[in-house]
Amino acid sequence: MNELTINGWQLLKLISALRSVGIDITLDEVQDALKALTRYPDLAPKLVLKSLFIHRQEDQPLFDMIYELLASAPSSSPDSEPTAPGQCTGSDQEEAGDGSHQGIGTGQGGITLHLKSAEESSPSRAISFQMPDLHYLMGLKGFPSTIEEEETQELDLGKQVRFILGQSGFLTWSNSLELAKGRGEVPEDQWLKFEAYRDFWQRRIHQVLWQERLSEQNRWDSFREINWRFKPLNSFTAAEEGMVQQALRQMGNQLAVHRGLRKKKAPRGRLRLSSLLKEMVRGNGSVFRFEYETPALKHPELIVLCDVSNSVAPFSQFLLYLCQRMKSRFRKVRLYLFIDGLWDITHEEWLASGDSMAEIRSWGRKHSSGFTDYGKVFKDFARDVLPSLSTRGTILIMGDGRNNFRPAQADYLQEIQGKVKHVFWLNPLAEKDWTLPDNLMGEYRNYCTRVFPCRNLSDLWRISKKVFS
């Protein structure tokens, strides 16, 4: 990777780019960076800036991407391309023979793997792959392009990466190699070599796509979707969900300490200053009895209703996880799942585990037709649950409002709103989609305290502070 030459202008560009993608950098941190770069000229600038600007491990890949994009100058020369692990030389490619899998167009670095022989008497086979020119593949017909919708642009990098890997022949070659591994023909050292090569090209393809995107749009804020705070909650991989759950735990801990300003008497807690002063007056400076106080719970009862149809289930999973982290701060918490029926899951043991997605989906398959019916759900809730709720309770609804052209029955939601203190609706769809023909948000929002778009962790954090603080 090229090293970025840090001067005043480059530093300003880096800070502006990081702020645009959602990483906060204070003026004090900028001043510290200038001092450190001046005082320690022998240290790598990237290491200095990362240590001062990045405070969470999850932000390090995003910093690396921004830094590399600023440091890399686009070039069409193959000699300027980074070298892939295990890149083969020209002689290596000649040795590949009939077992090689060649790509299309100009090569950008290949790899040759030597496999075990199926028969002991024959020599080991060698198979190779050479990655074609990425820009050539991006110009092929069918390459997924930017989707333009009104003022927003959404680029599905995953589809573009899969297209490039497919058209290059890498997926076919990779599949044949995995089959060979299953037959025991791939030695462990050769498999590790392949994995390093695969990971390199995954990163390299992403970098080239990001460079193209930056050159076309000339704006950094379009990279916000890469920031885990602004990444849609339904797009996290299984490996990334642990990171999201850790962030939700921290959010829950922070929200839990904001328990309202009102205090109430308690057998233990903080000393009541007013009572202490009165006792000192009565006892002429002596105190014979102490009184304590604790913060009064602002929301004594929390009721959470989560749509678990396929389109909303990933969002509901994280809301349920956050509410579980804050459960001890409420007098009572009730958790419900719904599609076309309502299911109480408050006491289900699987809620305590981080991996609840499989259970959430299984409930939808076991107990419903798979088509959401908000009207029926609100009717069942008003009949079976509402009579037992506190008038000071808060209801959270996670759902997209799409009712599959079934009756809205909004009068039941109106009845629910009249009984409890607040009804907050969290919708994972963009607001422009709330007016689609099968979406009833225009009708339901009349009976909600507030309706919030909720697509990512940043939205969930902002909403939680308004609801629970």
TrEMBL record:
Top-level taxonomic group: Bacteria
Gly residues composition bias: residue spans: 100-110
Pfam families: VWA_CoxE
Composition bias type Low complexity, residue spans: 73-85
Region Disordered: start-end pairs: 73-110
Protein name (Swiss-Prot/TrEMBL): VWA domain containing CoxE-like protein
